[in-house]
TrEMBL record:
GO biological process: carbohydrate metabolic process
Keyword Isomerase: yes
EC number assigned by the record: 5.1.3.15
Protein name as annotated: glucose-6-phosphate 1-epimerase
A Pfam family of this chain: Aldose_epim
Organism annotation: Mannheimia succiniciproducens (strain KCTC 0769BP / MBEL55E)
Keywords recorded for this protein, A-Z: Isomerase
Reactions listed under catalytic activity: alpha-D-glucose 6-phosphate = beta-D-glucose 6-phosphate
Length: 324
């Protein structure tokens, strides 16, 4: 809408060259407008979801430090880290790390759904959701309320070789329920602490980005596992490959799981800290909310959890992620 006093004299539009644009837009290559009034122009930008081109509005709200800034992604506030150790994005909804790229790695370590809408009250599909104070369908909403609640950035520390970010979850009475700390160096170490009076289940439900789920191998897992689909225990090979819907719980205090990604030619080491359970999940062809039909092909969940052995008040659960 140009309004009174504006007249389009000439306009020419063209389609982008085939395969040259990620955006479904028409290029306006030539436009002449005659105006009878002064006008100011503003540039409005939209940011694509880096993995597949899903559009979202991105707006800078506050520059906290030279390395840390607060942004708005559609409806959700996001803390962005841009530092010599790498880049990261953490949604304040859920204190949810959904992107991490160490300085030496050109590709994201974490997977994010290509159709993620960043909508308040809807859990983000991908990254590292915090399942707390229950796991799966032990209560409502599924996987607990922590991942759809707004957290606060309560502390941070920036040095030349390390960045530490701490987020807190408060009750309606302004009591601290839980905290989570992210330490970024060449690695990413995450520590979750339960501060509620009651013991609780918790899981760091990590979605790892992989090149092709069919070319994946998981090392250092036990051969005995609980299959959540059949509700039975069964024997499985180790190393493990994935070629179907998988939802299983390894109840063993493991040191680390190694993800061998033969497509991207990288190894992801997942060190489980104070975990009693390791969950491996991939939905395969099963329709899954917030995920495209082909999303399963480039992700695998390897989760550090306390399901069968709950966290007491003051107790921690953690994971350290590194690339080899």
């Amino acid at each position: 809408m140009l309004g009174t006093g504006a007249e389009i004299l000439n306009i020419r539009a063209e389609l982008p060259p085939l395969g040259k644009s990620r955006f479904n837009l028409i290029y306006i290559s030539h436009c002449v407008i005659r105006l009878s009034f002064p006008i100011k122009f503003a540039l409005y930008c939209i940011k694509p979801n880096e993995q597949k081109g899903n559009f979202m509005e991105s707006k800078l709200i506050k520059q906290i430090t030279p390395a840390i800034s607060l942004h708005q992604y559609n409806e959700i506030p996001v803390i962005k880290l841009n530092h010599a150790v790498g880049q990261a994005e953490i949604a304040l909804q859920g204190a949810h790390l959904f992107s991490w790229k160490p300085a030496y790695c050109p590709q994201d370590v974490l997977w994010l759904s290509e159709i993620e809408p960043f909508k308040l009250g809807t859990a983000i599909r991908g990254g590292i959701p915090i399942c707390y104070p229950w796991f799966n369908n032990a209560g409502t909403p599924s996987h607990g309320f922590a991942r759809i609640s707004l957290w606060q950035l309560s502390d941070y520390e920036v040095s030349a070789e390390k960045v530490r970010l701490e987020f807190s979850l408060f009750s309606e009475q302004r009591l601290i329920i839980a905290k989570i700390q992210f330490v970024f160096t060449g690695e990413c170490e995450i520590t979750f602490t339960n501060y509620a009076e009651e013991n609780a289940q918790a899981a760091l439900h990590t979605y790892f980005r992989v090149g092709d789920i069919r070319q994946l191998e998981l090392y250092n897992l036990p051969t005995r596992v609980f299959n959540s689909l059949t509700q039975t225990e069964e024997n499985v090979p180790s190393p493990r490959t994935i070629g179907e819907l998988v939802d299983c719980v390894y109840s063993a205090e493991l040191g680390a799981t190694l993800i061998q990604d033969n497509q991207l030619n990288r190894k992801i080491n997942v060190e489980h800290i104070n975990a009693s359970d390791i969950v491996v999940w991939n939905p395969w062809h099963k329709p899954t909310g917030g995920m495209s039909e082909t999303g399963y092909q480039t992700m695998v969940c390897v989760e550090s959890a306390r399901i069968n052995k709950r966290l007491n008040s003051g107790e921690r659960l953690g994971v350290k992620i590194s690339l080899r």
